[in-house]
Amino acid sequence: MNLLIIGAPGAGKGTMSELILNRYELVHVSTGDMLRAAVKNGTPVGLKAQGYMNRGELVPDEVIHDIIVERLSQDDVDAGFLFDGYPRTENQAVDLDEILKELDKKIDMVINLNIAEEELIKRITGRRLCPACGEIYNIYFNPPKEEGKCDKCGADLIQRKDDNLESLEVRLSEYHKNTQPVIEYYEKKDIVRHIDAAQAIEKVFEDISKELEGLCR
Ligand code: ADP
Ligand code: AMP
To answer: How is the chain split into domains, by residue range?
Structure first.
């Protein structure tokens, strides 16, 4: 089973990905996570991506193409994968189709997390992450038991550099201009499932689970 999860910044893609991966053995391919790791490690990809990411702009398609080809060349993806935050442009979606065709693979379902823009402000400004285990928190909606500490591993939580209002505005405009056409691209293939992402975390996951059960049947 090969899946794609799509939605505006803060819609809940990372949170839902973790819950999906607890239930299904899939490889999580998050271009955002891969790029942040590249920036942290100072790799050539990281150096190219850093400025765009800090401003909230999309990283150029060529850079994304290279990291995806590299990732999909690893054998573990044969078990099935979950793309998170990719493709973000129609050009990336067309490119992905070509890459997957070569590998004799296809996307089975696109999960679209729908949410109104005003809901995203607290999700983005309140987001905190564990740098050690990747757990995602929110100081308003999903706080850790002890302030600033990860429930799972005790590490100090961090805030993403681009999780501020200025960058959110740019990210939302990139989303409307470039990523919404991606949903229309997959609509034409009739594989999109729309999920109301404004509900509580458990309810959003329940709705996604129903769609996935339908796919596995
Ligand atoms: P994305 O990967 O789409 O940018 P995240 O999964 O990181 O989004 O979620 C963004 C923020 O919103 C996080 O702080 C997360 O804890 C919180 N969050 C995610 N889903 C929900 C939800 N259904 N209700 C309330 N808060 C949520
Ligand atoms: P995310 O973690 O998905 O919110 O992504 C964080 C940032 O990484 C985005 O604002 C972009 O700058 C960059 N990015 C992540 N995925 C992509 C992609 N598929 N295409 C272009 N830029 C991306």
So the answer is: 2-116+167-216, 127-162
Counting atoms of ligand 2 from 1, which one is nearest the CA of 174? 10
Cα of 81 vs centre of ligand 2, distance in Å, is: 18
Model confidence band, residue 140 (pLDDT cutoffs 50, 70, 90): very high
The per-residue pLDDT for range 169-215, each reduced to its tens digit, is 999 999 999 999 999 999 999 999 999 999 999 999 999 999 999 88
- Phi, psi angle pair for 112, to nearest 5°: -100, 115
2-116+167-216 placed in CATH 3.40.50.300: yes
- What contacts 83, CB < 8 A, 6 or more positions away? 2, 3, 4, 5, 29, 30, 31, 107
pLDDT in tens, 74-90: 999 999 999 999 999 99
From the CA of 1, how far away is ligand 2's center (Å)? 24
pTM, two decimals, is 0.96
